[in-house]
Inverse folding.
């Protein structure tokens, strides 16, 4: 298939420098040839310019850091995603921190009906400004896509996504608001313990039954590298213990990609400054290679 690779070198959503170096580090370490060797064609590499300015993180909003920087960035991403879909090109958004998903999910939701989300992450990212302990926008994108959060974030979405059509995998760090939100909205969550206690075939069979019943046809895949155990991927700003192994993640991705129509993807939170002996870089390239050998084939 044809791909656009959209790179977004931002740290504004996590307030920890180094993650903005992730996209370039992956590119210079053969990300393009990795994807091409999987049988895909790179249509265009689109670099979203991000001006680094960390002087006043609460300049325009006391509950969201760098709000005035994040808003134009995610609007830009949304437009590029929507344009990619109009041209029948698969958009792969490389972060940067997870706040970029506000834009990628907005563009995805504008382009398709019958939508669902696969969220592979250690965190739920379901906070709203008043519930966020950190005031970091990277903890808010999934909530925004469901219609919850700051009104300027929500305004980017022409359509919001049904929370029941969201599937979270590898989650093991949730704030109280997020826990209550998940229960109230009957969301599908497979936490870290699920991978020890539930066969993955059972997970996917349950998912597929729900998808067929509710006629979900198009999925956005959001992959945060902190889903891995920190031993595998130390180079991320929000590591959480007892994460998934490479084998677990590959098995999951293999089953998901063989079952679902993934129409867009983002890949986030690789911080090269926190990496150790290139372990995280190698894990990123390995799972991207694995993913793009299977996606929509």
């Amino acid at each position: 298939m044809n791909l656009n690779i959209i790179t977004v070198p931002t740290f504004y959503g996590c307030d920890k420098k180094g993650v903005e170096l992730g996209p370039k580090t992956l590119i210079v370490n053969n990300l393009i040839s990795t994807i091409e060797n999987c049988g895909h064609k790179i249509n265009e590499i689109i670099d979203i310019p991000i001006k680094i300015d960390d002087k006043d993180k609460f300049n325009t909003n006391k509950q969201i850091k760098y709000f005035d920087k994040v808003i134009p960035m995610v609007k830009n991403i949304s437009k590029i995603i929507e344009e990619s879909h109009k041209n029948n090109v698969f958009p792969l958004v490389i972060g940067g921190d997870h706040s970029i998903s506000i834009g990628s999910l907005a563009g995805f939701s504008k382009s398709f009906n019958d939508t669902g989300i696969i969220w592979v992450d250690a965190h739920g990212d379901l906070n709203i400004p008043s519930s966020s302990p950190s005031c970091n926008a990277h903890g808010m994108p999934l909530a925004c896509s469901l219609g919850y959060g700051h009104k300027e974030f929500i305004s980017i979405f022409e359509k919001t996504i049904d929370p029941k059509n969201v599937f979270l995998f590898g989650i093991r760090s949730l704030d109280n608001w997020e826990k209550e939100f998940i229960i109230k909205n009957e969301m599908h969550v497979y936490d870290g313990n699920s991978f020890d206690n539930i066969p993955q075939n059972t997970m996917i069979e349950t998912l597929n039954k729900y998808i067929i019943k509710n006629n979900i046809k198009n999925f956005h895949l959001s992959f945060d590298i902190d889903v891995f155990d920190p031993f595998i991927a130390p180079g991320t700003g929000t590591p959480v213990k007892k994460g998934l192994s490479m084998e677990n993640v590959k098995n999951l991705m293999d089953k998901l990609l063989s079952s679902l129509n993934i129409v867009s993807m983002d890949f986030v939170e690789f911080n090269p400054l926190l990496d150790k002996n290139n372990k995280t870089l190698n894990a990123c390239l390995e799972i991207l290679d694995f993913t793009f050998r299977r996606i929509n084939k």
